[in-house]
Amino acid sequence: MMRKDDVESGFLMVQQNKTGKRLRIRVNSDGQVNSLRKLLSQIAERNARLVTSYLIVSKTGRRMTATMLRKRWDEARESTRTSALMENDSLLASKIAAFQFRDLRPKAASEIEDIGEASLLLGHTEGDITQRVYRRIGATSNPSK
């Protein structure tokens, strides 16, 4: 349900569903355009011909509902799984089939190195919850030689 006016003063303003906690996510990092700003620019370019105030919309300009997003997710996952099968990669195909929309939250938590930043993004007050429940990567180590 994000709208164009949720982007202001260099931040994407969001509100957590569960807690209602508000969060400002930077769209620039250290004066540089970050991946969020690039994504928002791509969305704006795609939506330029549409009359809508929402960021995520259908081809006709209608706001995406949860059901619409879910259907598209399932179709994209199945298409990708089929591509993997066509390339005779059954292991990858089984991993793709098992991947669920809700796996995106733990993926985001695992990609952010600083546990404090990950906790903040997920709306947790303690890094312990983020570490225990959402981080799905092991510790980082260097080889012996």
What does this structure look like?
There is one protein chain. The chain has helices spanning 35-47, 66-86, 90-98, 104-111, 115-122, 127-134, and strands at 7-8, 11-15, 22-26, 28-29, 32-33. By secondary structure, the protein is mainly alpha-helical. It has 3 domains: 1-64, Intergrase catalytic core (hpI Integrase, Chain A, Orthogonal Bundle), CATH 1.10.443; 69-99; 102-137, no CATH class. It has a 3-stranded antiparallel beta sheet with strand order 1-2-3, with no helix packed on it. Strands 4-5 form a two-stranded antiparallel ribbon. Strand 1 (7-8) and strand 2 (11-15) form a beta hairpin. Helix 2 packs antiparallel against helix 3 and helix 4 (104-111) packs across helix 6. The protein is globular, with a radius of gyration of 18 Å.
